[in-house]
Amino acid sequence: PQLSLQERLRLKEEKKKQAALLKALETPEEKRARRLAKKEAKERKKREKMGWGEEYMGYTNTDNPFGDNNLLGTFIWSKALEKKGISHLDEKDLKERNKRIQEDNRLELQKVKQLRLEREREKAMREQELEMLQREKEAEHFKTWEEQEDNFHLQQAKLRSKIRIRDGRAKPIDLLAKYISAEDDDLAVEMHEPYTFLNGLTVSDMEDLVEDIQVYMELEQGKNVDFWRDMTIITEDEIAKLRKLEASGKGGAGERRDGVNASVSSDVQSVFKGKTYNQLQVLYQGIENKIRVGGPNLDIGYWESLLQQLKAYMARAR
């Protein structure tokens, strides 16, 4: 609720009495602190009236960047005024002039501050760019080191292959690497189609070969990738065939799977033999579409098995 005039006057009078009582009871130290606070408040009000911003409120006659010992007062230097030809100005005009000068000084200080901040930003950006360049340089160095390490391991693998071939204890991966390599002509090895190197291998042997092929693909970093991919397909197809043969010896479902496989193998030999790789690709896409469309009377197992064997057949053809 809004107070009446009489109540406001009464509260004001009580406040004055309390202030007078505090003054009477205060110690000398408290008195000095009160007067100092009052003086600072007065100076602050004066600075605000002069148009000073918040960041300049802490400046005093003894502590300011302008070197002005009379910063808070109106200094009149008669001789300087006469020399400048402004001694005729009255005190009011001089105050206005000093106020403009102080404002110019404040703006100049602000410019200096902005320039300093800009230099600091530019320095931070340069340091950031240098750091990024250093990281890129380190990444490039690490990449080069990785490539050199991979090349070293590849050369070591090829050297071990040469030794095993020369000693007559070549592994399948040695013969495949020899087949695809054009730099090992000094080794006398009779070359056959690469998939013939799988003849006589067990499932375990071919599983090891698939792992060895993956190692070569990683070390060669994309070189001969089509060859190694085809050999992976062919080897995995041979593994599947051997496992079906093992399962067929147990009877039941295994025999049925082997029967399907036998009919598929017969179809592959009779239908796809002699066709070019491009013709095989067209047939492969046709079988894929047939499986995708489906139908109530479609033997999905047969066509999927046919597609898998055709994939291996295409790898051999390529």
SSE inventory with pairings:
Elements: H1 5-25, H2 28-49, H3 78-84, H4 91-166, H5 172-180, H6 203-220, H7 225-248, H8 253-272, H9 277-293, H10 300-317
Coiled coil: 98-136
Biased composition (Basic and acidic residues): 26-43
Protein name: CATIN protein
**Rg from C-alpha positions?**
48 Å
Shape: elongated
Q: Give the termini separation.
A: 98 Å
Global mean pLDDT? 76
Strand content range = under 5%
Per DSSP E runs of 2 or more residues, the count of β-strands stands at: 0
pLDDT < 50 runs, ≥5 residues = 186-190, 251-260
The number of domains is: 3
- Please bin the fraction of helical residues: over 70%
Number of helices: 10
Structural class determined from secondary elements = mainly alpha
The biggest beta sheet reads: none
Element pattern in H and E: HHHHHHHHHH
Question: Could you explain the architecture of this structure?
Answer:
- By secondary structure, the chain is mostly helical.
- It has helices at residues 5-25, 28-49, 78-84, 91-166, 172-180, 203-220, 225-248, 253-272, 277-293, 300-317.
- The protein folds into 3 domains: 65-150; 170-244, no CATH class; 249-318.
- The protein has 10 helices and no strands.
